[in-house]
Amino acid sequence: MDIRITVDGRALKADIPPNQTLSDFLRAHGCWSVKHGCETGECGNCTVIVDGRAVYSCLMLAVQADGKSVETFESVQKRSEFAPIQEILMDFGDMDCGYCIPGMMMAMKALIDRIPEPTEEEVLDQLAGTVCHCVRSVKPASALLEAVQKMRGNW
Fold first, then answer.
1. Fold of 76-151
2. pLDDT value for 155
3. 70: buried, middle or exposed (CB in 10 Å: 19+, 13-18, 0-12)?
């Protein structure tokens, strides 16, 4: 099947098998931040943003993204406005491996794009589908709320 997808601002055209997942498609095109995790939509490590909505790319077929815009951590990590979130996550003392950071960043970006000043409940709800096996989601949620305040100049 021929598809056209815009990935991180780059127009891609590809001939793919109809059963290829979006995560496999993205990784095949150099988006290594899209992690393989559970492959069942339970861990959130493959989270990307498709047309403004956070999705688990392991559950979405690449053909479903035909004609859509996809954002991955590769583009977000370069943008200075999200530096406070990235810094907080990377410096977060109890996070050992960092495997979940790209998925958390994408989930948080989707939330902040929709709700610029989320509440703790909204952050926890957004992160509910992103599992950090090192510390779970409660501690990162507190750190992320601090990062959102820092982004908004309320630090």
1. DNA polymerase; domain 1 (1.10.150)
2. 44
3. buried
